[in-house]
């Protein structure tokens, strides 16, 4: 009987862990979807709400490493000054993998369809749960 109870407890724990991870992934995907929607409205500040609003945010792209939320927003505004440049953003998510409790990495692709010329690339971002919200703390896009 003890063995049966132990097995039941183990299965219940595994199911709870799986449900938590699925919920985390759904919330991360919702954050990315909100970023797409903000971008497609030309709302770069709204797009940046998916990022950790901290001087410790790291963004690594074709121009090297940028530290900080405000500097990253400034770079986006400089590179994408109008709707002709922002265009329509579409993410393709290839994998979301748990690193440890409270953090995941996401690998994917982005596609910008725009008047200024289309742009495609890949990214690796790290999400961390901060104040009960999933935020990007590290972003490598190229």
Task: Quickly describe the structure.
The protein is an alpha+beta fold and 142 residues long.
Topology:
Layout: H1 2-40, H2 44-47, E1 58-61, E2 64-67, H3 69-79, H4 83-86, E3 88-100, E4 103-113, E5 119-130, E6 133-141
Parallel strand pairs: 1-6
Antiparallel strand pairs: 1-2, 3-4, 4-5, 5-6
Structure description:
- With 142 residues, this protein is of the alpha+beta class.
- The chain has four helices and six strands.
- It has a six-stranded mixed beta sheet with strand order 2-1-6-5-4-3, covered by helices on one side.
- Strand 4 and strand 5 form a beta hairpin.
CATH topology: Nuclear Transport Factor 2, Chain: A
Count of individual beta strands: 6
CATH architecture: Roll
Low-confidence stretches at least 5 residues in length (pLDDT < 50)?
A: 10-14
Strand content: 35-45%
Strand order of the largest sheet: 2-1-6-5-4-3
What features would you highlight for this structure?
142 residues, alpha+beta, Nuclear Transport Factor 2, Chain: A, six-stranded mixed β-sheet, 6 strands, 41% helix, globular
